[in-house]
Design goal:
Length: 155
Amino acid sequence: MERTLVFLKPDALQRGLTGEIVTRLERKGLKIVGMKMMRLGEELLDEHYAHISHLWFFNEIKDYMKGAPVIAICLEGVDVVNVVRGMCGPTKGSDAPPGTIRGDFSMANQFNLIHASDSVETAEVEIPRFFREDELFEYDMENLRFIYADREIPE
């Protein structure tokens, strides 16, 4: 099964939307294999946002992300990266369609509630950035047979 990293940003916690967002992810049929609350420090933020470090808003984003804890979540499922990206909606909340997390709860570009890995390759880099191996769990999800047909579950 594929894995992805999600984190609920400080605005999700401040606005009391953590439970709503996690519920949506679970109801979709995604398996939580890791979840924790954490504060993001300077070094981790520099690493995670290195790809935008040259942009004018880099320090603004870092300050925002240090403003409150985040909830880091590792999810597992078939095509989970694309599924979660679709559930999130476009980055700018006012552009996101109703029914998506950002479309239902966000108006802004920066205050957009949730981060999700943008590819399987990115997820493979991001997951160990936020989770040690002993913080990720293997377990049988008993309702899996009601989420996927047997032929849809990869070996």
